[in-house]
Every structure is written in C-alpha cells, then in structure tokens.
C-alpha cells in the first residue's frame, strides 16, 4: 500500500494504516520554550485530553461530536507557578511533569497535575447558569441602596448565552518530596495515589493534604553509596495493593503493600540477564528504564529504556516476553550522544486502548520535540515496522486502523 499525503502506511491492505487527522498548535522552528509540551494524558473514555507544558499551563481538549477523532480546546488554566526554595536556594520550575485523570463520577472533571515538588488536584466544571435576583446588589454586582430595599427576593438561576468552564484547585499536596517528582499514579480504589521522586515513593489519600505515608525509601545512610535512583512508579490497574517502580539500573520491582508497611523488600524483581560480551561504557546509561506501564488487564507490563521496549509477564520475572529494538541504529552513535547529553533523554511508552470492534479507529496523540517512533505489534506486522516523525511544540493526531489480533504499543 502506498503512502498518501495524509499519512504513511505499512504493509498490505487491511493490515496497518495511519491517517493524518489533526494538529493542535503551530509548526514553527522558532518556538517559545514555555510552550513545549511536557505531559499528555487522555481521560478514561477518551473524550477529553489534557496537556501540560513547560510554562505550567494545562490545556484540556474535548472530542468534537461531529468531527470523528478531532479535538477542540475545552479549557486552559495555569496549574503551577515558578517558586523558590529559600532554604536550599533552589528555583522550582513550573513545568508540568505528569497529569493523571480521576474517574468521572458526575458532570465535573478531576485531574492531578505535578511539577517537581507540588501535586495539585483540580476540579474542572461547567457553568451554564448564573444567579440573579439578589437583594443587596444587582446582577452586575453593584451595591444597592439599602433604603430602597423594601422586599425580600429569592435568587434564581438564569441561563447564560455562552458556556463557561472553570478550573478550581481543590487540594495541594506539597512539602513531602525532597527530590524531583517523576511519577504520580492513581490507585484502583479511586481514593489513594502515589507520588515518586528519585529516592522515595509516598502514598497519599485524596482527602488529606497534610500527611502521607512513605512506601519506599532507597536513600542510603551515606549518599556516596548511592547506586541507583527511582525513575517511574505505577499502581496495578485492578489490585489496589500492588505497585511497581523502575530504577536507573534497568530493574523493575513489584511490591505488595499487604506484606509489610515499608516496601523496601520487593515481591518480584524483573531484570533481564546481562550479556557480559556486549557490555560497554554506556551499558548502564542506556539500560536505565524511563517509563513503565501496566496493561489494562494487569497481566503484562511494558518498560521503556533508551534503545528498546520490553514486554513483561507478571508471572515470569526472569526475562521479558518480547523485546523491540526501537533506536537500534543509534547504538553506533552513543559516543556522540553522550557528548551532547542526548543519551540522557527520557522516553515514555503507552499501551494501545482496548477495542470492541475489529476495525475500531483509535486516536493517538504524541508529545516530544525531536524524533518520535510508533511501533505496533500484530500477528501480521513485523516488530521492525517503525515510523519516524518529527514533532515540535504541537500535538499531532493520527488514527490507526488494523485488526486487533495482537497488542498495539505506542511510544
């Protein structure tokens, strides 16, 4: 199948095809650094999409009911502001590191957003009515003459011409992380969530902002003995007592909160055996896991390091089920990447959503400035089918159509 102007295609008919759908933002070489997107997250039903940028802003897009797979701006608000830690003489950036949606229970939307130090719970609500008929002031807020008030009126609601969307901070969870927060994850009980920095993982309850419980602490007594840091942490999608965290040594630890209060001792350790013959100066750097995600069923998880994606089965911790070489061509250029610090770039990985129909279109939005790669595993599509795309500070929406007899993985 030939590639069209609206998107490239891979394989023969009815296998894999990408259709270019939408761009949010401007494609320019010279961009404002504050506009660079740093976090992207769909809500649970895919109707809303939240993005965070380096300027601390959160932009929420809503799926257009008329246009299939297209999104329009729903709300924009300033989530975080730059701060300064006077005790440590450190400036805290407003950059959004991660966004997590809470399950929708009513017409309001709730989401968690975090920068390096502070986590906030936001309520996004719609206002379709305004209050009218006040006793002490008119509809414009002007104070009435008290001598002219001789009757008692009952306020009433009046429909407004334009829909107003308000974002209100409901909780602020701070002063619990000494190091930079790299992950937040909502628990399946919808009441608690975890936050992870380089050395510690904390457990929070959504209703309490002044206290949290430390689940993991890998900080050594002497910092010179530090050999690894936490890079990502995620709750299990169905078991509220299980969570995993990855490290810079390329390992993933599965912990059970029922076994002990402080989860310093893991239940399982997922680690691929190292090939001593291929070990080099860069082996430890490129083996650092930058992201880990559970599948929706909770049986599998996928991890991302600098050059590969690994698919793990929770019942087999000795080696990954499959390994995808994504950036294999960069292996010969690691020295140059080390000199310009590109070897320390972090990449994320996302599971493809579940499908009810064989050819259900699945919209995907990708974030990253630089090269992006899309990888799909299907019974009739080889794992090496990789598409490079260059993206700036824009969101590019693609629709994937293929028969779901495998698992799709999107980076």
Which labels suit this protein?
411 residues, elongated, four-stranded antiparallel beta sheet, mainly beta, 30 strands, disordered C terminus
Structure commentary:
A four-stranded antiparallel beta sheet has the order 1-2-29-26, with no helix packed on it. 2% of the residues lie in helices and 43% in strands. The radius of gyration is 24 Å and the shape is elongated. By secondary structure, the protein is mainly β. The protein is built from two helices and 30 strands. The protein has helices at 283-286, 334-339; strands at 9-10, 16-24, 37-42, 48-53, 57-63, 71-78, 83-85, 90-92, 98-101, 109-114, 119-132, 156-173, 183-186, 192-196, 200-205, 213-217, 230-235, 242-247, 252-256, 268-270, 291-294, 300-304, 308-313, 322-325, 350-351, 362-366, 370-377, 386-391, 395-401, 407-410. Mean pLDDT is 79; it is low at 1-11, 355-392 and 396-411. The protein starts with 8 loop residues before the first strand and ends with a strand.
Q: What topology emerges from the helices and strands here?
A:
Blueprint: E1 9-10, E2 16-24, E3 37-42, E4 48-53, E5 57-63, E6 71-78, E7 83-85, E8 90-92, E9 98-101, E10 109-114, E11 119-132, E12 156-173, E13 183-186, E14 192-196, E15 200-205, E16 213-217, E17 230-235, E18 242-247, E19 252-256, E20 268-270, H1 283-286, E21 291-294, E22 300-304, E23 308-313, E24 322-325, H2 334-339, E25 350-351, E26 362-366, E27 370-377, E28 386-391, E29 395-401, E30 407-410
